[in-house]
Amino acid sequence: MSIKEIILHSGESVYVDFKQTAYKPEIFFDFIKDVMAMANAPVEEDRFLIVGVKHYVNNDRDIIGLTPDDLLDDAVYHKLLHDHIEPPIPFECSYVMVGEKMVGVFRIYNTQPPYMMRKDFERGKQKLLIGDSFIRVGTTTARVRRADIDQMFARRLAADPFAGKIDVQLEVDGQLLTTARTCSVGDFPSEAARQKITHILEEKREKLQQQQAAEALRKQQASENWSTHAISQALQQMQFPKGVDLSGMSIIGSNGPSRYEDRSIEQLEENLQHVKETYREEDLYAKFEEKAHKLNFIVLNNSEQYVEDCSLTITLQHGAGVDIATKIIQRPQPPSAFGYTPPRPMPMGYPFVEQQADQYLIRDSIKSLKHGIDNRAFQEPLRVFVPPQASGQQLRFQLTLTAKNLRKPVVNEVLLTIL
């Protein structure tokens, strides 16, 4: 319900009270007492003191409005309460136009009672003494009793201390961001190898044609009795590369060919056919460790105590080709001189990532969420590759946080807009 709807339609209750006249200095006694009573009221909702409205028992009302002289700076009210009530009461003061009349609204937010006088206040014959406390009961104001205080503490113990106090922010490549650009799809190792093999193949095929032309010259010499000098000059003009065996176009070495430049045309054609498979690990490393975004989630605990033994579950619907690494891809190592690559320990701290039929499922545990600091969800951030076709879309991460001392899971949604 909006504030205007409360002004026009609500009746007086334990959390709504109407006042005909403004809270001016001569009735600050009533202001302190009324706000304290509302703050101590046994309700979870925000509470409202509406000023400039005369309310009747039958729920009719007259919008009296406030004059310019009635409009005090809200800093006056904040200082008055801060100086005289403990603990501080969270509230705000505003003015709302209802028709052509201006109405004052004091909104008291969800509180932590009991509230009481921290020092004396005296206005004429009216006095509020240290320790005095008042509570809203129905539509009236009464002094706080011992039973009221017992109930206040019982409600505080029953309430969830973390309700509304756990927030999540997105960290992209080490910065708090809500947007990210797409990732580059060029310059993958397999593509670079494909281009290199294609270029070498073209050169070798051209040279093979030169070889075949030379063989044809030899045959022509045998049949037509050409001079050796003439055929020698023709062969020199062909300019064959050193080490090329004219009969097989291969390099002879003690360990066989290794570089692409040293391989035969047949070997290169086979290499070209399997280049994606050959460079799979190199491509994965480039994709997820060099090109992908590194995403983490900052969990803010704005309560006054630790959240213990936490588990975080995140889901992301498949879409637009977005790809998340299921592990940290290590830089591929070339085999040793003996053809053996020693095993390396797996990097630790990456969350569990499972690719399901329609979504990614990401899970990790957090020992505790300290209050007042930024808690990163993962030791190692997620590697998220965003292709160009995802431009203009939003990635919706659905987060569910559970913990030993959370009364109910904290559910949140974090959006990442792709530029």
Description of the molecule:
By secondary structure, the protein is an alpha+beta fold. The protein contains 9 helices and 24 strands. The chain has helices spanning 3-9, 28-39, 74-84, 146-158, 189-224, 228-238, 265-273, 275-278, 280-291; strands at 16-19, 47-51, 53-55, 61-63, 85-86, 91-98, 101-108, 116-117, 121-123, 126-128, 134-137, 140-143, 166-172, 175-176, 179-180, 293-301, 307-317, 323-324, 352-355, 359-369, 374-376, 382-385, 394-402, 410-418. The strands form 7 sheets. Strands 13, 14, 16, 18, 21 and 22 form a 6-stranded antiparallel sheet that branches. A 6-stranded mixed sheet has the order 15-24-23-17-20-19, with no helix packed on it. Helix 5 (189-224) runs antiparallel to helix 6 and helix 5 runs antiparallel to helix 7. The longest helix is centred in the middle third of the chain and has 36 residues, at 189-224. The chain is elongated, with a radius of gyration of 39 Å. Residues 240-256 have low confidence and may be disordered.
